[in-house]
Amino acid sequence: LVEGGGEVNASFFAARAVDKVVAFIAPKIVGGREAPTPVGGEGAAVMDEAVSLRDVEVTTIGPDVVITGYPVWEKAEKTQEAQQGGSAMFTGIIEEVGRVRRLSPVGPTSMVLEVEARSVLEDARVGDSIAVNGVCLTVTALGAGTFTADVMPETVKKTSLARLKPGALVNLERAMAAGARFGGHIVTGHVDGVGVIRSRTPRENAVVFAIDVPDDLRRYLIPKGSVAVDGISLTVVDVTETGFTVSIIPHTLANTVLRHLGPGDLVNIECDVIAKYVERFVQRAMGVAPAGGEGADRSAGLTLAKLTENGFA
Fold first, then answer.
1. Distances from the Cα of 155 to the Cαs of 37, 85, 191, in angstroms?
2. Which residue, of 13, 73, 165, 174, is most buried by count of CB atoms within 10 Å of its CB?
3. pTM of the predicted model over 0.90
4. Of 62, 74, 217, 244, which Cα lies nearest the Cα of 142?
């Protein structure tokens, strides 16, 4: 039990040595630049850095209001880490198949998603990144065998998450840890668009999926190149006039949501980020407006003549 001035309280908070907070608020207004505060030190610069309280109870003792709660240190630490920079990275090796428990609309094009899982929750903390069907989401809350994440309008627009229903199965992967084995390819969790499965064809011990994708994604696809489909790292077999094909081995089929998908189903597509960077570097070197950006001329594209003229061929 600690009862002291603002600087004493700040020292305990800085050391993460506070398990429970009991705050008494009197019905009086004080203040001023020199007024003491319950917690001294540097404090939080912005609200996102503030230490939140969970299981809050509010009672009264006479005219005083008593607030009791328990600090959530993980959220504050993860927020500070995120503000220092850096992005999550995945490898496209699915760890488990989870199940959607709840989708709660927040606005016309945003929602809160709750997913049932096991393996990805073993060391999960609030603020961690988990890819859901290839979409990088931030854990905002943890429950008994579940995690919750916010899905913002841009994510709803670019992915198939809004079409999920309670009970739907989803691919799950935690962000890659530094020094971990790199089993797939670089997957950012930033989906480029939604594809449609055109056909599913058994071929001996494999199943070949033909997937149609938007025209502006096909330029990043090459035979034997990498692509993420619902977060799964896959190798492109062929590039077609409308998309591409991939060949799925039995293990991948049995341990991902692909086993339940067929013609007409939607899948999230993330193209190889290296291909996108190479395209941007070449375009800048040639003075061509980036595709999709301001002033872009999609009809111009790159030609052998342009590459030769600029020393790339």
1. 41, 21, 8
2. 174
3. no
4. 74
Do 189 and 131 touch, CB atoms closer than 8 A? yes
pLDDT digit string, tens, across residues 99-132: 999 999 888 889 999 999 999 999 899 999 999 9
What is the DSSP-derived secondary structure letter of residue 27? S
Helices within 145-246 (DSSP H only): 153-158, 215-218
Token pair for 168 = 């739907």
Amino acid present at 234: L
The one-letter code for the residue type at 95 is E
Phi-psi region of 128 (alpha: psi -120 to 50; beta: other; left: phi over 0): beta
Handedness of CA 182, 186, 190, 194 (dihedral sign): negative
Residue of 245, 209, 238, 210 whose CA lies nearest to 223: 238
- Do the beta carbons of residue 55 and residue 20 sit within 8 Å? no
Distances (CA, A) of 15 to 12, 41, 48: 5, 12, 19
The helix/strand/coil state of 276 is: helix
**First-last CA distance in the chain:** 73
Q: What is the residue whose two structure tokens read 């061509």?
A: 288
Strand locations in 180-312, DSSP E?
Answer: 193-203, 206-212, 226-229, 232-239, 243-248, 266-271
Overall residue count recorded for the chain in this entry: 313
How far is it, in rounded angstroms, from Cα 213 to Cα 198? 10
Are the CB atoms for 194 and 268 separated by under 8 Å? yes
Which has the closest alpha carbon to 19: 38, 1, 4? 1
Model pLDDT for residues 236-273, shown as the tens digit of each residue: 999 999 999 999 999 999 999 999 999 999 999 999 98
3-class DSSP state for residue 112? strand
Contacts of 88 (CB under 8 A, 6+ apart): 129, 136, 175, 176, 188, 189
Amino acid letter for position 227: V
Owner of token pair 């935690």? 174
